[in-house]
Amino acid sequence: MSVITIPRSIRERLGDEASEDFAALINDIDIGARKDAIAIAEERFERRLYEVSGTLRLEMEKLRVELRVEIEKLRADASNNKAEIIKWMFLFWIGQTAVLVALLKFFVK
């Protein structure tokens, strides 16, 4: 808090008591102005915070939707890959069985 000094010329015209009252009035005005400035700053901050949080919520929802789409794509790819692997496993087993039958026929003769 700043200290207010009343110039001597004003103090001589007003007197000591009036000068003290005048200084107190100026201090009260200063305190009120500071409170008003703080209230305005709080309102601006809250408004800005509300706007930014709304924007962040929208962006988060957009990312959530994009993530769901990507997960569905990955699930579809995994399903396709699983079917492809099973197909090749059966072909491998059939080939192995054919080779084993051919070897058995070769050794049995």
Strand content: under 5%
Q: Uncertain segments of ≥5 residues (pLDDT<50)?
A: none
The sequence of SSEs as H and E is HH
- Biggest sheet layout: none
Q: Considering DSSP H and I runs of 4 or more, what fraction of the residues is helical? A: over 70%
Instruction: Report the structural category.
Output: mainly alpha
Mean pLDDT: 91
Overall radius of gyration: 43 Å
Number of strands: 0
Describe the structure.
The protein has 109 residues and is mainly α. It is 92% helix and 0% strand. It has helices spanning 8-14, 16-108.
Short description:
This protein has 109 residues and is an all-alpha fold. 92% of the residues lie in helices and 0% in strands.
Task: Using brief descriptors, characterize the structure shown.
109 residues; mainly alpha; 2 helices; rod-shaped
Q: How would you summarize the topology of this molecule?
A:
Elements: H1 8-14, H2 16-108
Helix pairs in contact: 1-2
